[in-house]
Backbone:
C-alpha cells in the first residue's frame, strides 16, 4: 500500500541521514 511504502521509505531515508 502506498502509505506503508512511504513510511518505509521515510524511515530508511531518515536512517541514512542520521
Residues:
Amino acid at each position: 500500500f502506498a502509505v506503508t511504502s512511504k513510511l518505509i521509505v521515510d524511515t530508511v531515508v531518515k536512517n541514512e541521514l542520521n
About this structure: The mean pLDDT is 92. The chain has one helix and no strands. The two ends are 26 Å apart (CA to CA).
